[in-house]
Amino acid sequence: MPELPEVNTFQKYFEGTSLDQRIEAVEVHDAKIIRNLSGSEFIDRLTGRTFVGSYRRGKYLFAKLDNAEHLLLHFGMTGDLNYYAEPQERTKHERFVFHFDNGQHLGFDCPRKFARIQYIEDLAVYLSEIQLGEDALVITEADFVQRATGKTATIKGFLLNQSQVAGVGNLYADEICYQTGIHPGSRVNKLSSQQQSEIYHAMQRILRKAIERSAYYKDYPENWFWEWRKEGAPGPEGKGIVQRTKIAGRTTYFIEGVQVLY
DNA sequence: TGTGATGTTGAATG
DNA sequence: GCATTCAACATCAC
């Protein structure tokens, strides 16, 4: 689930539910996804604190604490937030939960444990240490094109590379390639700067639309790929054939005969 | 029952 | 240095 639009939805959910309530207790069921602290250290650091805001960059969500430090929530493939009142509303794969002083809870659910939770003392320092590109919605066209210039990677690989642009994942990368009529295996340096800027605008348009629909796939426009991601099926309007392959190590769908390989 | 899954990382390879 | 592939992480659903 969690690519940029999904994480944006998590952020809204977090801000709409979990701010300004003192964390009275923290319960850790499985500390595996907490990367830089033990379970008991995690409990010690968070107990008594209050969430006061958040910052999202790409798929990284930083929950801001009242001591100006942050908790990084990276959702991996299956992370999810669950704010609830009654204990029986607890989800099956809850890994830890904050008990707020108003009786509410914020649980972090993650069946596959690919999520990464990290306690960040200094956000600016952390961001300068990791290789994380500018957020896909924030990056300027000039910066995007400049980063693309000369790259020999496939366009799909480039879009997935979080150190170039942060936020695009496997599904949206396919959608961007589809909507620009470009084969996902095309080399970035074979594309004109005009095409690179078309990709930039498609990326922003698609992510914005997805956010507007709260990353709820069923509400996406009918001509998006959700409707046609089936190998061997005819493409939209009967043009071309849906192909499934592997590009940049990820399962990739595109329409043979419609998306041009450069 | 086997296969693959919306993410990231590190090692190995070209 | 750059790009790609693969394995690993752990679990579930088809």
Produce a short descriptive summary.
Helices cover 28% and strands 24% of the residues.
Could you characterize the architecture of this molecule?
There is one protein chain. The protein is α+β, with helices and mostly antiparallel strands. It folds into two domains: 4-129, MutM-like, N-terminal (N-terminal domain of MutM-like DNA repair proteins), CATH 3.20.190.10; 134-256, Helicase, Ruva Protein, domain 3 (Orthogonal Bundle). Helices cover 28% and strands 24% of the residues. The chain has helices spanning 4-17, 39-46, 123-129, 141-148, 155-160, 170-180, 193-212, and strands at 23-28, 51-57, 60-65, 70-74, 80-84, 94-100, 105-109, 116-120, 134-135, 165-166, 241-247, 250-256. The strands form four sheets. It has a four-stranded antiparallel sheet, with helices on one face. The chain has a four-stranded antiparallel sheet with strand order 2-3-4-8, covered by helices on one side. Strands 9-10 form a two-stranded parallel sheet. Strand 11 and strand 12 form a beta hairpin. The mean pLDDT is 91. The chain binds a DNA duplex (14 and 14 nucleotides) through helix 6.
What labels would you give this structure?
262 residues, alpha+beta, Helicase, Ruva Protein, domain 3, four-stranded antiparallel beta sheet, 7 helices, DNA-binding
Uncertain runs with pLDDT below 50, 5 residues or more?
none
Strand order of the largest sheet: 1-6-7-5
> What CATH architecture of the largest domain would you give?
Alpha-Beta Barrel
Structural class, judged by helices and strands?
A: alpha+beta
Q: Helix proportion of residues, in percent?
A: 25-40%
Radius of gyration: 20 Å
Number of helices: 7
CATH-assigned homologous superfamily of the largest domain? MutM-like, N-terminal
Largest sheet: 4 strands, antiparallel
